[in-house]
Amino acid sequence: MRKLVAFGEIMLRLSPESGHRLFQNGTMRTCFGGSEANVAALCAQLGIPSSFVTKIPKNEIGDGAVRHLSGLGVDTSLIVRGGDRLGVYYYEKGACERPSKCIYDRAGSAFAGSGIFDYDAGMIFADAAAFHLSGITPALSEKMPDICISLCKEARARGLLVSYDLNHRSKLWDEEKNKEESERILPYVDLFISNMYQANSIFSIGADTASEESACITVARTMMKRYDIKTVALTVRKTLSADENGFYGMIYDGENAYFSKKYVTGIVDRVGSGDAFDGALIASVLKGSDMQTAVEYAVAAAVLKHSIEGDTAYLSDGEIKALAAGADGRVQR
Amino acid sequence: MRKLVAFGEIMLRLSPESGHRLFQNGTMRTCFGGSEANVAALCAQLGIPSSFVTKIPKNEIGDGAVRHLSGLGVDTSLIVRGGDRLGVYYYEKGACERPSKCIYDRAGSAFAGSGIFDYDAGMIFADAAAFHLSGITPALSEKMPDICISLCKEARARGLLVSYDLNHRSKLWDEEKNKEESERILPYVDLFISNMYQANSIFSIGADTASEESACITVARTMMKRYDIKTVALTVRKTLSADENGFYGMIYDGENAYFSKKYVTGIVDRVGSGDAFDGALIASVLKGSDMQTAVEYAVAAAVLKHSIEGDTAYLSDGEIKALAAGADGRVQR
Amino acid sequence: MRKLVAFGEIMLRLSPESGHRLFQNGTMRTCFGGSEANVAALCAQLGIPSSFVTKIPKNEIGDGAVRHLSGLGVDTSLIVRGGDRLGVYYYEKGACERPSKCIYDRAGSAFAGSGIFDYDAGMIFADAAAFHLSGITPALSEKMPDICISLCKEARARGLLVSYDLNHRSKLWDEEKNKEESERILPYVDLFISNMYQANSIFSIGADTASEESACITVARTMMKRYDIKTVALTVRKTLSADENGFYGMIYDGENAYFSKKYVTGIVDRVGSGDAFDGALIASVLKGSDMQTAVEYAVAAAVLKHSIEGDTAYLSDGEIKALAAGADGRVQR
Amino acid sequence: MRKLVAFGEIMLRLSPESGHRLFQNGTMRTCFGGSEANVAALCAQLGIPSSFVTKIPKNEIGDGAVRHLSGLGVDTSLIVRGGDRLGVYYYEKGACERPSKCIYDRAGSAFAGSGIFDYDAGMIFADAAAFHLSGITPALSEKMPDICISLCKEARARGLLVSYDLNHRSKLWDEEKNKEESERILPYVDLFISNMYQANSIFSIGADTASEESACITVARTMMKRYDIKTVALTVRKTLSADENGFYGMIYDGENAYFSKKYVTGIVDRVGSGDAFDGALIASVLKGSDMQTAVEYAVAAAVLKHSIEGDTAYLSDGEIKALAAGADGRVQR
Amino acid sequence: MRKLVAFGEIMLRLSPESGHRLFQNGTMRTCFGGSEANVAALCAQLGIPSSFVTKIPKNEIGDGAVRHLSGLGVDTSLIVRGGDRLGVYYYEKGACERPSKCIYDRAGSAFAGSGIFDYDAGMIFADAAAFHLSGITPALSEKMPDICISLCKEARARGLLVSYDLNHRSKLWDEEKNKEESERILPYVDLFISNMYQANSIFSIGADTASEESACITVARTMMKRYDIKTVALTVRKTLSADENGFYGMIYDGENAYFSKKYVTGIVDRVGSGDAFDGALIASVLKGSDMQTAVEYAVAAAVLKHSIEGDTAYLSDGEIKALAAGADGRVQR
Amino acid sequence: MRKLVAFGEIMLRLSPESGHRLFQNGTMRTCFGGSEANVAALCAQLGIPSSFVTKIPKNEIGDGAVRHLSGLGVDTSLIVRGGDRLGVYYYEKGACERPSKCIYDRAGSAFAGSGIFDYDAGMIFADAAAFHLSGITPALSEKMPDICISLCKEARARGLLVSYDLNHRSKLWDEEKNKEESERILPYVDLFISNMYQANSIFSIGADTASEESACITVARTMMKRYDIKTVALTVRKTLSADENGFYGMIYDGENAYFSKKYVTGIVDRVGSGDAFDGALIASVLKGSDMQTAVEYAVAAAVLKHSIEGDTAYLSDGEIKALAAGADGRVQR
Predict the structure, then answer these.
(1) Strand E244-252 relative to strand E263-266: parallel, antiparallel, unpaired?
(2) For a Cys-Cys bond, which of B300, E299, F243, F281 suits F298, CB 3.0-4.6 Å?
């Protein structure tokens, strides 16, 4: 099977224990994560050969990131080693009515400082079937949008499935800037993924979200027409509290809208649930699933991620399928 | 007061921290448990002299199991030391929509390898008032059913209260085999305990579970008539999610059905909640409670167990009574 | 800005890990806390210069308490060092249907053994704007009521805002005794704070709690008239389970009753939520907020405290305001 | 086999993690211990039926102490439940050149408050072969010396082996007071145990410690003659650093002095090593070992205790014998 | 570069925290290890493509082992998945005078139950330069010696460097049996590695160990002649205490004996230090180092392993070279 | 008493548990530290009013640093809040023959980015008696040397004791650059502190270190003459292994050399031991101690720091004096 290539930043995450504020005691939980790295990690676990492309420093901190990915079966041989530092982010999990808090310390990272010549498209896309990145990546430096476009172009040219998750991060750039750069990337994108509300806002689509499901269809149709995209996948999250979220998704293929079941899920750690959606969706598409199967599978993976500490969706194909089949969750039908 | 004797296997349990998948970090929580051991542990805490009979290896792993039981006041002097290994089970607690996962590594245990001559009924039943075992035990080896029957016979012959919790484990045997062996044991049983759905299915009773309460009565009546049992206690659990369960129980004495209140409980760790039901029920019966008191007490113990990490119901008589009295739970009336 | 002075006991708190019973494993979480100390700690974080007055032993246990308070910005220079021991309390957090359990080991503490000559009102009230204590303090020794009254008198005489949280602790004294001593203190109190049900019961007000909101008004009016108090703040808590509480508050200024939004909050640790109410209320009042703003702010702080392990409300002004503004909690309107 | 009875106080011990100062982070390791309790715990592990007699409060803290002892096989049925609190001690382990620090918070304990009528000699000494206590016990209250003497007398009268470890604690009383009370106890003592230097000082024996071994003999002879004691066992410890101690022992039977090997041992936790000496010595004597065997065994147990966190010598007979046989320690011959 | 293939068992290791006895508290540290797996893990870190061949169950426990190896860069694609269980071993680290304790629970493992048809020599040895196994492997089942011999033969036939570490485990078989089976394997071995004392005893060489260094030479010469081996590497360990060991090594190439420096090292965890010697030696040989360089490198790796918790030598080439170059250890010259 | 002002950077330190390599498991110990911050922290504990001046970001990471310092009694009111990030450093403690490893991630910190206008000398030096900084500070940015010189000048002008610890960090700059900048600072320095070997090398003094003590005197005399310094304090460290160091110090006042005792100390964590020397020395000097007392006190503090995890010397005056008095360390006389 040909591989998925994901491109982006991987960071060290530092989190206090559940129920504790930052530095409340002298211990931090650590893990490594980043949107595209999380996608590669899940795809690899689901049986898709996956390679993560990034630049990380040639020190023990970088080694830690490599070990994390290798352990999950991600190919790390294309990772460029060099540059200054691995980005760090502090993540304090919320609880009850207290929201989660994320503090980035990623400026000056090896990845943000990397340039187009760090990446060799020929090597990167050998044997590849798909290329994935998210809207976080072009936000990381002035040069990054061009690097992303260049790689997307190359991927397109080789006939790969190019997927792009809008993934807006307001701490990195504003919506206007995101729109501007995303519009330069979208011409090379086959599969566009986004939170429905985010896409609606950033692309000023103006769908009436009072009726959420039809808003999904409006957003998907608009993106499709406006940017000539083949497939649009949207997710909808409702924050019921820091401890409970509603979640569902939809795929639109230009003709039909395939909605998943709607879940209400508790939250152990919601970071990476969108990435789990992406990873499971891509894996499902690469395996040739139909749209309805794919959206149920992707949403089930996203929901399951909420139950796991850290960035990574430690999940097997069987576990995701069991939930998608309605095993014993408290699905709202 | 004369003692309760419980017979079965005790294992080492290994669990990752809450919200973590197996081996996600380098730490495991350990405890010792097993259905009948958990029953003895609760009975001892509730003031019933309790003795646990099993066979465990003569090494530090076996010593750990003995210390656990002794610490809770269980008499361990009848435990046979010898044989190969202590069974292990890995238990990954579920969360949100992710179900719990149990991986047995109990084959070849000292207990499974034990034979009838390891157990001296004279010594075991001296000063005993009751004998308890569960359907897990006969499932553990080819010889086990005969050992169980032999001990039940002896217990019956001495006038003990013999209790048997059906406790079907599909990873150990199938329902047909369970039925076959249970039917050889039931003639010596005074108090039959089971999840209502399990009994209904294994004994092909065919109660209509659309009306759950009347199904309870049908199952109880059928078991009673078919196997000439004096008392039947049934529990009903509804899995609302990995984090929330409904739970209630019923005792049927041939004339009346005594239903407990119906609880909805959160879940810290549901392992051992059925055992807590058994233990509290037996303790209550041995103390001479009436049926309504006994079922409320047993269900309250089972519900409280959901709030405690590990296999063991660390509970006092006062705590159970307080909940049974409706203290401040969110009881559905 | 002039300072708040809080007077009371600070103790070492020992808690097993979440989901564990006391001594279930060999680890305890420690923190330092006490009602008035928690108030001072929050006020200091909210930008009110705050000083905590108490007596603690001159040993490493006392040093630990001082470090805790200093780290949060509380002035500890008025703390008297001497006497025998720091009080200890064991706090086992409840879960599901299992209630929390609090075991005091505070008898014979340095504070309880302190006398009037340990405290120098001149130094204590220099530059002070407010003086706070709770009903726990007079309950701690025979001499304490007189010390409290003496300090309240001095504070009143200097024109400070004197606040008193009824805070009944049934393990320390009975309701009658509380009433008797509180009635000696109330003449010097400007701001009376209490759980509505507690005040209604201790002062035999007889408000009809079937209608909870009008009971709040009745209790406030009665207290105001009976004891000539300027402002009454009441809180109402509903224990839905050990994991979920309802919570709201009201301020009555003699003319109007200002009710906060009503929250349903999950519970990581509810200890100190009432103290967070007090601290945020006092801070808000000292900053000159209007009553509606103050009650929303105080209730938001109390609700947020439920999400944090330990006694201390580690909270910033911005976090409290965000929830009060209705950020994304699951507020019942 | 007839049992050993040990009498004294058991406390909750709270310790920061190794290498940490008190309250440096928010975690404490807990265990239960006390000199005589530790003796009983080791004897029980070595196969001597052992009963610990004390008074502890009827709450969960007391329950924790009981579970600890029961888990090790100590009979706890003679423990009186009642009174106010369980004593606490904070123990910060030293390291390198930093000495260990012990802060007692034991005043007002249930045991210290107990009286002679709490203890029923008839029940306590039924089936007993030996009675052990240490010099800590009479130091705990004004009534304690009389209680100790009364129990020693009863034990003597019944022909039990009465052992007394001088165990001076300067934080509890001064040497003069210790001497005075010990002299009232010694007439009933068969086996006197002490650190040689302590005995030399408290009883003003004046042995020349320049020659340590002959000082041992002088101290033993003097004690024996002066107080008509049958056997004297002395230990000698050299503090090389907080991480390394020298240790050896001697038994004198009136005719011969039996010296053990001399060990230099690292230190994980030296608390309870003297108690391990006592426990192993008593067990060895009760099993009928000769003096040389007994002293080697007792010293080996004491040395091994240094390798174990907490108060309790978790040790088996085989482990002690292996070291006594010279297994592969770095014994100084 | 062509790869190293290592063949053997990988187990789950369970260890209590340092200074604690087994089950002293409710936590275990876990890691995965086994002699040959540890060799592959170090070789991979040192830049030698390394593949580990074994059979492990197709469950989450097996997945954990795979993740561990993959994370370190070991190729796991040749691992056979199937069979019953992953072997477990309990490892309690010693301290001071208390020796470490190892309890195997590996009977019935998937690997021990594997047969010759589980392993496909063609696939295994494709692109291989070296084949490594230890004397533990043939001890694991009746079939294992034949499997080992068959694989060694195949490896030899393909011109690979075949290395064999005698690694006697007295809990698995006795010395006679080891000798018998090793003698069937040695004809295919190029590089024989052993603890000098073990080889001397098992092969009844009778070297006079009073002069340790010349004994090394005698043992090496004898093995070489008797079994026609090209290179012999021997290690010598002196147990000074549970906390301090002496360690050095020697390589004999038929002409010269190359001795390493002699180290005295503290011990954090000595498990896997012999495997680190093997791995570093093989890596050094495959990289073409001369004998003196290789032995210094291998011994430095072994010494450094003593400083790391767990089975795995987490070490880089640079770190090993730095110590071999005499960086700042306390080398005995 | 007038205060000490220390100026420099404070960082977040991340360390794996003892005996673990970086990222070996998913936990890090955190603390805050930096050379001058550590000095202020110890001075504050020793009763010297101490103020730390730095610039840190206005976020929760900065808040953590402030809380750490405030908790120890350091005045943090002069800390400038703003700028980008708090520097981070990863510190992996060595063990046995494995050296400690320090990875800086401090580039781009708020402090390194601060400018001269961030610091108001008038406010900083109000009520000050002493000003301390180390050679790390001028190495942090191009602007830093000028800021340091400017502050030193101001301090001199106000008659403060200005102390400077050379503290060379080869990862920040080379020795030549250090010399160049230090020579611009030294004209304003009263008390120069350094590791003797470092000063000898950086200032090319050429003292013959074969005789270490006379080298100390040569280095001190040369520095004194060359840069017109009043007092020179030197330390000498011998790395015996990662677990054991020799340590002593000397003060030279132009006439006499005062040597401390020579210690051999184990190592829990040696980071900050030089800072402890500085802090205790400054505190001792400010309290008016004589030179011999001061050097013994400073060295005892440095030695004791080796026994404590983290950057901070959690030490009391009494503890330091006890070791200086020769309490029971293993002092080489």
Answers:
(1) antiparallel
(2) F281
